[in-house]
Amino acid sequence: MSPRDQYDLTNPVTQYDRVEPPLQHQPEPGVQARMTPVPDLGEASYRGSGRLTGRKALITGGDSGIGAATAIAFAREGADVVIAHLPGEEEDAEHVLSLIADAGRRGKAIVADISHADQCRRLVAEAADFLGGLDVLVNNAGKQIAVDRVEDLSDEQFEETFRTNVFANFWITKAALEHLGEGASIVNTASLEAYKPSPDRLDYAATKAAINNLSKGLALQLASRGIRVNVVAPGPVWTALQVSDGVSDEQMEHFDDENTYQRAGQPAELAPAYVYLASAESGYVSGAALNVNGGMVTP
Ligand code: NAD
Ligand code: MG
């Protein structure tokens, strides 16, 4: 079951079914269209109301999961949207682009491996060129590979996770600032892991704590320029990240049991947080983290 409309009055605990995923594996990056069940991006439920009219937005990892739900919501709120993704994710990107077009907005997908600084700079330049500027940057792409023992966590993986989750955030933000003016909004994606690290996600959880800290410092630095920086910190959400070694088999089988609601979240449930932080209605909010995690309490 999923809601017919995002504004329906429902019990949030039972608003979406438990996912109860069958065990499944894909190589990284996972393709959402091949998941069972396919995550809910709010295709049938998200109704816009003009909150981002005329905005120009870049969303990394906008092909699938949380970034894709956000891209669809942004378009339905009136924004033109560039989504960035890795090679091999074209099928998911096409789905999102078709929904952006259905919303009557302009959309484009750019392939870039953001673990390289030069590709981050190219991505931002191409996005700003297509959009005719940039008002909203959503740093959402992320890498998560579960490894049980620190001895088995390779130096290469540790570095790659930091390059993708933290360094890229820095490179893309720095390049985007050439285009972001007063009223612009940067929304970064942390995680419940930033506060409650899972023992088999040392590298990943540390990057998420770093994103929280980086975002707060940057919010202070950019306030005088009229640019806001905030964070969305999701809890367990059913996305392609999980099926491409993001969690162990055992955790996948119990994916619904990790939070207070006793059900995993759907990407559709995250998008409104990004809309709020991107839009002018959160003008007095900067340096904040919005936790969207099925009722988990964070410090
Ligand atoms: P997802 O797999 O659907 O999206 C992640 C995207 O990151 C991919 O689509 C891919 O395009 C992009 N990506 C990864 N490495 C990249 C690289 N080197 N270059 C360019 N793009 C790259 O999964 P998702 O869960 O929607 O993830 C979105 C964000 O949400 C991530 O930052 C993730 O850490 C965060 N998050 C997810 C959960 C969850 O339970 N799903 C919980 C907390 C935080
Ligand atoms: Mg993807």
Characteristic terms for this protein:
alpha/beta, 299 residues, binds nicotinamide-adenine-dinucleotide, 34% helix, seven-stranded parallel sheet, binds magnesium ion
Write the layout of secondary structure elements.
Blueprint: E1 56-60, H1 65-76, E2 80-85, H2 90-102, E3 107-111, H3 117-131, E4 136-139, H4 155-176, E5 185-189, H5 202-222, E6 228-234, H6 240-246, H7 249-253, H8 271-278, E7 289-292
Parallel strand pairs: 1-2, 1-4, 2-3, 4-5, 5-6, 6-7
This protein binds nicotinamide-adenine-dinucleotide and magnesium ion.
Nutshell version of this structure?
It holds the Pfam family adh_short_C2. Belongs to the short-chain dehydrogenases/reductases (SDR) family. The chain has eight helices and seven strands.
Q: Which CATH architecture would you pick?
A: 3-Layer(aba) Sandwich
* Alpha-beta classification: alpha/beta
Q: Strands of the biggest beta sheet: in what spatial order? A: 3-2-1-4-5-6-7
- Whole-Å distance between the termini? 32 Å
Largest sheet: 7 strands, parallel
Number of domains: 1
Under CATH, the topology can be stated as Rossmann fold
Number of strands: 7
* Strand percentage: 5-15%
**What ligand molecules are bound, each kind once?**
nicotinamide-adenine-dinucleotide, magnesium ion
- In CATH terms, the superfamily is NAD(P)-binding Rossmann-like Domain
Shape descriptor reads: globular
- Helix percentage range: 25-40%
Mean pLDDT: 97
**Alpha plus pi helix count:** 8
Highest CATH level, the class: Alpha Beta
Radius of gyration: 18 Å
Low-confidence segments, given as residue ranges, are none
H-E string: EHEHEHEHEHEHHHE
